[in-house]
Write a structure and sequence with these properties.
The chain is an alpha/beta fold and 167 residues long. The chain has one domain: Nucleotidyltransferase, domain 5, CATH 3.30.420.10. Helix content is 51%, strand content 20%. It has a 5-stranded mixed beta sheet.
Amino acid sequence: MRVMGVDCGGEYTGYGVVEQDDRGRLLHICSGAIRLLSREPLELRLMKICHALTAVIADSSPEIVAIEDVFYAANAKSALKLGHVRGVAMLTAAQAGLPVVAYSPLSIKSAVVGYGRAEKSQVQIMVARLLQLAEAPEPADAADALAIAICHLHTAATLQRQHAAAK
């Protein structure tokens, strides 16, 4: 299974594609971050995200897109901007014919680090270990996107095992 994780953000939107092979090994396909300039109009920033994610989907052929679920922010304006970015990521996936799944930040950190309140640096280190990368992915938004993809792969594998055991 090949999963694209997207870490939606107002300044950087991270992406990462991870594949799990038949032996259960996680393989890093690609990752990076789309830098958004706050001085650009919102609609141009959203278009930039759409174009960049469309290109990643075309280049890496994921089967599903995983994103971070909505969380509550103290600043309503920031939450609204994040919602716009999240909506564009979901729309881009849907236009490519890909299903979208969402995970809470707690679930993502638990799946990758084993602790739901892990620090960003801990997530980066564990992502590097799980994907056998020479160094932690940079920026942190790319590592977060990879963590979201890994979370889905771990969750899907667990559900598959439970389903097989129930038969």
